[in-house]
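Let's practice the habit of predicting before peeking. Look at the sequence and jot down your guess about where helices and strands might fall. Then scroll down.
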Amino acid sequence: MSVELAERQEGLVTVVTLKGRLALGEGSNALNERLQSLIANGQVKLLLECSQVSVLDSQGISALVRGIVSAGKRGGKLKLLNMSPRVRQVLEVTRLLTLIESFDDEAKALASF
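Done guessing? Here is the structure:
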């Protein structure tokens, strides 16, 4: 299974719900393309809901980092919400959690923008 992406607006924040694998191939490519499209269209406040992400590899991390950098260049932010245990583990091992804001409560995440 690849990744499924669903979006909704909460004020100025675009919440993207991810389900599936953020791994080499379709999953990471789909996420990267969608994030870059949103950012190009001016949606630079992004909250990724990650509770249903089953796999995160280096390609998935790369898509996240590209999203963070691209949003930042346009004055925005990309943050993570409800990370699955697998996502949290990978981001802790790679020490990326020190660079990426993450939340377990959607209201607090939205208020942080």
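How did you do? The chain is about 40% helix and 35% strand.
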